[in-house]
Amino acid sequence: MWLYLAVLVVLYYLLRWYRERQVVSHLRDKFVFITGCDSGFGNQLARQLDLRGLRVLAGCLTEQGAEQLRNQTSDRLQTVILDVTKTESIAAATEWVKERVGDRGLWGLVNNAGIFHSHGYAEWVKIETYRDTLRVNLIGVIEVTLSMLPLVRRAQGRIVNVSSILGRIAFFGAVYCCSKYGVEAFSDILRRELQHFGVKVSMVEPGYFRTAMTDVQKSSEIMKQIWKETPAHIKETYGEKFFDAYHDIMKQGLLGCSTNLNLVTDCMEHALTSAHPRTRYSAGWDAQFFFVPLSYLPTSLADYILTRSWPKPAQAV
């Protein structure tokens, strides 16, 4: 019995491997729009797709980021300034894309732009930080997608939304997790609603990677600033020793981030170029072999594993 089961598992993975190796034709004629290309995954993906010959349209937040990207790529790649928190900026970028893709439509939309400023316990973080994070990571994704959707539908193309392993299992960074859970839900709905139009929707769920969002020095400074601005009565509840221990745990976690961004951008590229893209891509060894299995455990067991090394607040019962 176990032998038959093993054979079936092997056959399943062989079949999946064969299907996923089939590539979409005429890639050099296809346009892909990517948000958040100043640095990190978006910048890496833009350069990667440009090398492969696709027509990359890169949305950058700053002119400096756009210029640096143009200097690193071929003349095929074009850039536009895009702030995903501003409706007028999104509308202008959509018109810019429409002028370039014409009747062919937009083959790929990659919602990559994101921020992570919630370095602290939920009640330490100001409500403005919650709003700002949701505005970029969730509302921005929704508004860009809805604005570009007619162009993607015309091409019967692809939508690739960058979520996070923290969109699968939440254990720190409350508002960031909320935003990524929202991206997961929005993507699931889109996939089901757009299936009859030939549009495929994929999510990429990276683990811990070294980008501007996870810079150790910057993150450490943000954590200290958040704690400094936390109301006195909340500080008393947790205590300075708690914050110092929490700060060290977070810092050690950031120091362990992978520097191989290709593990993420290869997933994005596959979602855009494979004839049979996956619904979800878990990028990184930590995501595949720790966080994803952890998300299937009973909640009480997962809670114990995730929090067993956390310090106790000063006023813990």
Polypeptide structure, described:
- The chain is built from twelve helices and seven strands.
- The longest helix has 29 residues.
- By secondary structure, it is α/β, with parallel strands linked by helices.
- The model has no long low-confidence stretch (mean pLDDT 93).
Alpha plus pi helix count: 12
Poorly predicted sequence stretches spanning 5 or more consecutive residues:
none
- What fraction of the residues are assigned to beta strands by DSSP? 5-15%
Quaternary state of the chains: single chain
Radius of gyration: 21 Å
Q: Percent of residues in helical segments?
A: 55-70%
Q: For the terminal residues, how far apart are their CA atoms?
A: 51 Å
Q: Mean pLDDT across all residues, rounded?
A: 93
Main traits of this protein?
alpha/beta, single chain, 55% helix
Describe this structure in a few short sentences.
With 317 residues, this protein is an alpha/beta fold. The protein is built from twelve helices and seven strands.
Helix-strand layout with pairing:
Blueprint: H1 2-20, E1 31-34, H2 40-52, E2 55-60, H3 63-71, E3 78-81, H4 87-101, E4 108-111, H5 127-155, E5 158-162, H6 174-194, E6 200-206, H7 216-229, H8 232-238, H9 240-255, H10 262-273, E7 280-283, H11 285-295, H12 299-307
Parallel strand pairs: 1-2, 1-4, 2-3, 4-5, 5-6, 6-7
Helix pairs in contact: 2-10, 4-5, 5-6, 7-9
